[in-house]
Design brief:
The protein is mainly α and 205 residues long. The chain has two domains: 55 residues, Arc Repressor Mutant, subunit A (Orthogonal Bundle), CATH 1.10.10.60; 142 residues, Tetracycline Repressor, domain 2 (Orthogonal Bundle). The protein is built from nine helices and no strands. Helix 8 packs antiparallel against helix 9. It is elongated and about 60 Å long. The N and C termini lie far apart (51 Å). This is TetR/AcrR family transcriptional regulator. One of its GO terms (molecular function) is DNA binding. Keywords: DNA-binding, Repressor.
Length: 205
């Protein structure tokens, strides 16, 4: 089976390879130096490309980092997209618990890059805005799951799905950063048990 990249012209294939090299070099530079101290010059040197070449693909280091952040967050979206069609409160509880564990475990697994994401959010207005959009996408997905539960008479109908989803995501996000930065005194199991118990028992009838 022919790979789709093989169907591209040699020039376009080269362009894709150059972009990939810059992204890989960028990830190395950010992990080695942190977001603030990493520079386009470092990235170009690691990628072994011409100085002007980098600006063909990215406006600046913030632009390059946003691509890396989006690629990373796509792994988290896969967790959020796990089918959620519970037939009972107990089944919903188990599915939610599974998702939270996968979400937090992925954050810990990718902690080195997540620490750079946290730094970048606090420094770059563009990345802060990109993170806002990422957050909203998660909240929208959670809202869909809550609406499903309400439509199937599992969850309380008098609750606003988007408000509940927003509170739920913020809680997960807070503990995610604590785990990534080793700031909390609670284990992942303790966090999951308490988070899910409060959420599921408050939402589901």
């Amino acid at each position: 089976m022919t790979n789709s990249i093989d169907k591209l012209s040699p020039r376009k294939q080269q362009a894709l390879q150059t972009r990939k090299k810059l992204l890989e070099a960028g990830k190395e530079a950010f992990l080695e130096n942190g977001f603030q101290k990493a520079t386009i010059a470092q990235i170009i040197k690691k990628a072994n490309t011409g100085y002007g070449t980098a600006y063909v693909y990215f406006k600046n280091k913030d632009d390059l980092f946003m691509i890396l952040m989006e690629d990373l967050m796509n792994q988290f979206y896969e967790v959020a997209e796990i089918p959620f069609k519970p037939q009972s409160k107990d089944e919903a509880f188990d599915l939610i618990k599974k998702q939270v564990r996968l979400f937090l475990s992925l954050a810990v697994k990718e902690k080195n890059m997540m620490i750079i994401v946290k730094e970048a959010i606090g420094i770059s207005p563009e990345i802060d805005q990109a993170w806002y959009k990422i957050r909203e996408r998660f909240i929208d997905r959670i809202s869909i799951d809550i609406e499903y539960a309400q439509e199937n008479s599992l969850a309380r109908a008098n609750l606003d799905p988007s408000l509940v989803a927003r509170g739920w995501f913020y809680s997960n996000e807070m503990f995610m950063w604590e785990l990534v930065q080793n700031e909390g005194s609670y284990s992942m199991d303790e966090i999951i048990h308490n988070l899910v118990s409060i959420y599921a028992n408050g939402l589901y009838e």
